[in-house]
Amino acid sequence: MKDLLVKINAELETFKTESESLSEKGVKAAGARARKSSLEIEKLLKEFRKVSIEESKK
């Protein structure tokens, strides 16, 4: 589970960086990277939900 949390935090940092580049600097390519990152975050959070439910059943 710790590995999953590390991945989530890393992807959140990527999203934060890219979204700031888009909003503050107007880098259009950063918008595409931020959207891609948001999809990856969604997948990781769904996985976290599964793992956390399994952990709570123990």
Strand content: under 5%
Tell how many strands the DSSP assignment holds: 0
Can you count the helices? 2
Mind summarizing the main beta sheet? none
The class by helix and strand makeup works out as: mainly alpha
The value of Rg in angstroms is 14 Å
Mean pLDDT: 96
CA-CA gap between termini: 14 Å
Task: Please tell me about this protein's structure.
This protein has 58 residues and is mostly helical. The chain contains 2 helices and no strands. The chain has one domain. The longest helix has 29 residues, at 28-56. The chain starts with a helix and ends with a helix. The relative contact order is 0.17. The model has no long low-confidence stretch (mean pLDDT 96). This is Histone H1. Pfam families: Hc1 (PF07432).
In short:
The chain is an all-alpha fold and 58 residues long. The chain has helices at 2-25, 28-56.
Give the arrangement of secondary structure elements.
Elements (H helix, E strand, L loop, with lengths): L1 H24 L2 H29 L2
Helix pairs in contact: 1-2
List keywords for this structure.
2 helices; mainly alpha; 0% strand
